[in-house]
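User: Um, what's this?
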Amino acid sequence: MAGKIENSKGKVKQVIGTLTDNKKLEADGKNDRRTGKAKEKVGRARSAVEHAAAMTERKADTAIDKAKDATHHK
């Protein structure tokens, strides 16, 4: 969420900088947009890692349960 806000804020700064011929404001806006996009990518990567970890944990729990069941039935 923070990345999208940063990206939007940057876009506004960039447009205002362009319209007012304020190169510093335009550059700040571009920088904010890059930062926002990077934060969005980090957020997506974090979500993917968390999902993969949760799936691995579930699979490990299932394997442990099956192993327990197999040893109890002997």
Summary: The mean pLDDT is 93. The two ends are 53 Å apart (CA to CA). The CA atoms of residues 61 and 67 lie 10 Å apart.
